[in-house]
From TrEMBL:
It comes from Candidatus Dojkabacteria bacterium. Its main location: membrane. CDD domains: PT_UbiA_2 (cd13963). It holds the Pfam family UbiA. It is a multi-pass membrane protein. It comes from the Bacteria. Gene3D superfamilies: UbiA prenyltransferase. GO terms for biological process: glycolipid biosynthetic process. GO terms for cellular component: plasma membrane. The keyword Transmembrane helix applies. It is found in: Membrane. This is Decaprenyl-phosphate phosphoribosyltransferase.
Length: 297
């Protein structure tokens, strides 16, 4: 009897973790970008502050995920993939979700207060919450504005990472963050249009597939082009960063091919991309080379 209760408890915890998207915690890796490119990784105080900022953003993201799923219960029930989400499937009840929301609201309030000594981080966290709450209730129903707003959230992550360790993010970092986030958001819409249909999301009814594909292609080109400009205009000491450009170009071509010809559906395009072993290995090598070059300069 006890082991059955333990199994039920474990299952419930798993559903709660699924509801707060524990599997998407990697999105907050953007908070670490300023730490890495400012060569602050080996300074314990800066690393700890960045880690705390990333955790604060995950806490804020968790609140937004629960709100979004609560608002979308009915529409998620008819979605081929989202119907398995904890709230839509009934694995987590509305009452349980409300209790979790209260806990997360309390946690986020404490988080914003604790960052008051670095008020810029508190402001960015508040902007992130406002941006995503507006998305949950209003802008996710507006074609293309939803993808732009999602991309803005990644810029806020980079800004929080910068303010946490008191560095100024470069224009290149902001632009590249926005473009790669915009590409991923557009890729998600393309996959939805291909495999789920316009009925799955209200904003999809106003998405034009041809235009969306063109926007994705142009955005990916701009990302690659601007990254190339960055590699040849960076400081003389960092010129070896140019070595990473062929890898980034290759990965861009692979991503382009995947989204334009994929016969698989995944809610997270980046996850779909990295499921391919070659893509994962090349991505890993690129990141390692980038970090080595930055810290060797």
């Amino acid at each position: 009897m006890i082991w059955l209760m333990n199994l039920n408890l474990i299952g419930k915890v798993k559903n709660y973790l699924k509801l707060i998207r524990i599997h998407q915690i990697h999105k907050n890796a953007f908070v670490f970008a300023p730490l890495i490119f400012s060569k602050g990784f080996f300074f314990a105080d800066k690393t700890i502050l960045t880690l705390l900022a990333a955790l604060s953003f995950y806490l804020a993201s968790s609140l937004v995920y629960v709100i979004n799923d609560y608002v979308d219960i009915e529409s998620d029930k008819i979605h081929p993939n989202k119907k398995f989400r904890p709230l839509a499937s009934g694995a987590v009840t509305k009452k349980e979700a409300m209790i979790l929301l209260f806990i997360l609201i309390t946690g986020n309030t404490i988080s914003v207060f604790l960052w008051s000594r670095k008020i810029e981080v508190s402001i960015v966290l508040i902007l992130f919450l406002i941006n995503n709450i507006l998305y949950s209730f209003i802008t996710k129903k507006i074609a293309y504005l939803d993808t732009l707003q999602n991309s803005f959230g990644y810029i806020l992550r980079v800004l929080a990472g910068s303010y946490a360790i008191s560095v100024i993010p470069s224009v290149f970092l902001i632009m590249l963050t926005f473009l790669i986030a915009f590409c991923i958001s557009l890729a998600k819409r393309i996959l939805e249009l291909n495999f789920v249909g316009k009925k799955a999301r209200k904003s999809l009814q106003n998405y034009d597939k041809s235009l969306t594909v063109k926007l994705f292609n142009v955005s990916l080109f701009l990302f690659t082009f601007i990254y190339g400009i960055y590699t040849i205009t960076t400081d003389q000491q960092n010129r070896l960063i140019l070595v990473t450009f062929p890898f980034v170009l290759f990965l861009a071509f692979r991503f382009l091919k995947l989204i334009n010809s994929s016969d698989l559906y995944e809610d997270d395009p980046s996850k779909l991309f990295l499921q391919n072993k070659l893509n994962f290995i090349i991505s890993f090598i690129t990141v390692v080379i980038l970090i080595v070059v930055v810290y060797e300069a």
